């Protein structure tokens, strides 16, 4: 070891015994929780220095990958304008600047203006310039950017630490001046009243759970703000939204499996909210939107994959079904416009969008590619006859379409430019189906450079998530091209616990069936080897957040299968976190994982798979854990403890911890910083695959 190379860090152990259900366990690295403890910070910095020294040989590759990402990205760019009342709204970026700029121009006609990157737009108004707001700060994020219905006022919220607590501010768009109103410690989102005199916002409790809705009268001091709703059940979060029709305000309170909605005439912001329908019913999820004299309602009462219907505005207990439950189709959302409803759904592992007309007929929008992802885009105009859609696939860059309801035609408004010699025809995508241990067929999405064949020699990066019914649909990535062009196969394992195959897919990968998520992933890796899409000794696994739990679990379950594991902000200390109701978001999580405080069965089951609890002396694949000091969703201490225990129990294993000291759950905030972070990750992956 050279004099300049840091020694391998070793966190000191401290006894921390606990007893649950008669089982005594020791958590020797519990002290790493405190982000203000100098010893903790020194340890994290030592780990960063060690990670840098162990990856120093990849510096040139990191620089090359960063250059590739930057070189393929049109740095001066803008989004497709979106119509709202008399304005077209859009965002744009400028070369050399880290953050986006939110803008608008006066509307003339229904067709989006032909604005060009780098060309000044006549009459443009800048709403928010993230670069100006971020000046002098290492981190910046925008929590809300909401224009009042009349177009005269702007509510925006800023954060400079990554902890997701924002300061809410207000701007008069007619003058460009900010009001003196500054409201600290608010959460994402918020809603205006119809006349713009009132703004509703949410606050979080000590566990970072949004639990309060407040009413602020513009121009008054924060001390006069009124608490409109407080959610006392710690399993529930709460938020507020204004309907597309701008007729009603909705307060939605939801847990993982239950929803309650309250509504209020948006023209009467000081009025009392009314509970929708029969109120809160355990295990029943409801979403509501407004159209004319009715509310459209999506719910899962006696309908696992949900059913869609409506209620009269004046009697929300009278439900009239329009789309019945279907075991093969998961209804995900229903968005109401003046004379139609856009229904988002999922069938056979693919997302779908359909238009429900006034007669009750549903017309699905078709696309040519065999695997893709489509969803409703930003559609603030209630009267619109064109529906904005977002579309992508593993080979098609993110695309914006407008679907004309009257002609049933799709109009491509923009496809994200990829500079250089990129040609979608140079890449191929496939759908495979792995057979899980219990016989279940698990979909896998695959993309590779054309010419890479399934001959059993290709290096492969396998990605997975598998929690919260969140689907990882096929998507395009400019950064991923740096892998594909080096011959790497990229695959997504659509494991149980996600929502790709409907509600039952989620149910089979949560609570006391959570291990299906982990075994499915390993079975997908085995399938890729068996059909030749991955060399047996050249597979790296990657996942983040709850997907990081998946990474930690498969490291214990099948360490021999992977040559490397990249865990982004990983939830690897699941048992200890879920046992501690004082930790951020823990109580909310009990309906996802179970409550080990109350149930010995849940405790034993979680202990049997929680990565930190199950570290042994086996030789692990190389592991890179990436985290952020200010992450409020998965504490930095989880990967820090995990790596410390891995190093102690398996000293010959190559494990690294990299902590962003000025970031939150999403990592570094500026786009160039984020590219550098991803270049670091991709260089490590390529090194593990032997293609660096």
UniProtKB/TrEMBL annotation:
Residues 1-33 are annotated as: Disordered. Keywords: Hydrolase, Protease, Serine protease. Transmembrane segments: none annotated. InterPro entries: AB_hydrolase_fold, Pept_S9A_N, Peptidase_S9_cat, Peptidase_S9A, Serine_Peptidase_S9A. Residues 475-690 form the Peptidase S9 prolyl oligopeptidase catalytic domain. It comes from the Bacteria. Residues 9-414 form the Peptidase S9A N-terminal domain. Belongs to the peptidase S9A family. This is S9 family peptidase. It comes from Glycomyces mayteni.
